[in-house]
Amino acid sequence: MDKSISDQLDAILDSHAKKIEDLAKAVTAQKEIEQDFLRAYSDHRDRVIEPALKEAAEYIENRGMKTSIDRNSHERSAAISLNLLIGDKARSAVQTWPYLKFVANKDEKLVVVYENTIGPTGGGHSGDVDKVKLDQLTPTYIHQKVVALMRQVLA
Q: What is the DSSP letter of 45?
């Protein structure tokens, strides 16, 4: 093979190998950033979000309504929710409870706030109501979201 041809092929193949290597490094770096955010979210959930939800749940339960708090974490996401256990659980094997959920969005580095106001009798809505940075998730903010949910579900 002509030397100029092999040089051209080498340059193309070397450039391609470099692109593949750079892409692999970028993917690894992005995964590390995402995992860092999930760790930060989990820490904030444990220190701020869950205590605020427990405080609200205790207050609501002292007023006679049952609640539950669910949390999940795995490699790809993390969330916590406050569920309002409204209605007669025995009526349906598949029960939909109103809830307020805080979900880590590792792609946007934000927490998505979801609410579901659909109760056992139907009606209401379900979807995201806000996207906030971790430092915006204060006990006051969380309690305000609980009040908004309760107002929509019970008013």
A: I
Distances (CA, A) of 10 to 2, 5, 16: 12, 9, 10
For residues 66 and 99, the answer to whether their CB atoms sit within 8 Å is: no
Nearest in space to 70 (alpha carbons), one of 85, 59, 86, 92: 85
* Residues 6 or more apart in contact with residue 91 via CB below 8 angstroms: 120
pLDDT digits (tens, 9 = 90+) for 36-63: 999 999 999 999 999 999 999 999 999 9
Q: pLDDT value at position 154?
A: 87
Q: Which domain holds residue 137?
A: 3-154
Total domains in the fold of the chain: 1
Quickly state the pLDDT bin for 101 (edges 50, 70, 90). Answer: very high
